[in-house]
Amino acid sequence: MQAERLLAAGAELAEGPVWDTQAQEVVWVDVLAGQINRLSLSGQVGSPTQMSTSVGALAFTATNSWLAATPDGLCRLDDRSLVVGLPLQAPDLRMNDGKVDPQGRFVGGTMTTGRPRKGAGSLWSFGGAGVRMLVDGVTISNGLAWSADGCTMFYVDTPTQRIDAFDYDPSSGVVANRRPWAHIPSEMGAPDGMCIDVEGGLWVALWGGSAVVRLIDGTVTERIEVPTPQVTCPAFVGPKLDQLVITTAAIGLDPCPEGAGDLYICTPGVAGTLPNPLGSWAN
Q1: What is each CA distance from 23 to 17, 182, 210, 238, in whole angstroms?
Q2: Residue 112's beta-bridge partner residues?
Q3: Burial of 140 by CB count in 10 Å (0-12 exposed, 13-18 middle, 19+ buried)?
Q4: Is 158 helix (H, G, I), strand (E, B) or coil?
């Protein structure tokens, strides 16, 4: 299967696409530029929102108020106010990928801003009970997804070349029993962002691999070719959630090939799940 270009964005590091069900638009970030962008599936581009810092991920509340994951913590887009801060960390850390769990907590990780420093980052949970560290010693915190029953969390720390599974307590958001769920051979690329479909298949972007792959029970069953190497994150979009938008990056590519940093789309033949809204703690 081949993905087709949806938008010639030319982004340095496009990431974190989220389907806005109310506006029927894809919302995505250019991480290091701190720019939040909107795009309809017909190709109409909305006005960008510029933040003063990097933005690793986005999340929305039940009232459709949007929050951005910044180096300081979670900030509102409308007034830039800090909703909840990160505990004091090294000054060169920033938020990277993040998702909302089925109970409305935001789970997101940190990494260094320049060359990734091994074990410098962590995975955090933000919710009504405050901020809790879930995993320490992370290098490049990336993709997250939860099983349909909410009792398993899937997680990518990119340099491990693995997708790991954790037991996940829905009531507390505590993780336990980390174990390898799938290994991605380095010749295929490195695992980055991911999303899950209604059949429990994980769709994983392959940084350096020019592809998104689908895994069932840890085994690759489908592959979507993307015409640029640095593939960052897929997300199910559209009225039926049956289309897959894929973000890519141009950062570090010299010379930079055509199509790097653009957004792509395909119809994979299976539907995804709706993104979870943040809980009332974020209002």
Answers
A1: 14, 35, 30, 11
A2: 93
A3: buried
A4: helix
Which two structure tokens, joined as six digits, stand for 95? 């938020």
Q: Report how far residue 246's alpha carbon sits from residue 236's, in angstroms, rounded to the nearest whole number.
A: 9
The verdict on whether 169 is a catalytic residue reads no
- Token pair for residue 137? 């010693």
For residue 251, count CB atoms less than 10 angstroms from its CB and return exposed for 0-12, middle for 13-18, buried for 19 or more: middle
Dihedral sign of CA atoms 259, 264, 269, 271 in order: positive
Reported residue count of the chain is 283
Which tens digits make up the pLDDT trace of 1-57? 999 999 999 999 999 999 999 999 999 999 999 999 999 998 889 999 999 999 999
Instruction: Express each pLDDT in 114-139 by its tens digit.
Output: 888 999 999 999 999 899 999 999 99
Number of structural domains (the chain) is 1
Measured CA distances, 120 to 55, 94, 140, 205 (Å):
18, 11, 9, 23
Catalytic residue among 192, 217, 242, 254: 192
The range of the structural domain enclosing residue 23 comes to: 4-282
Structure tokens at 2: 């081949």
Residue 164's alpha-carbon distances to 3, 16, 181, 200, in angstroms, are: 27, 20, 5, 15
- For residue 195, give the CATH number of its domain: 2.120.10.30
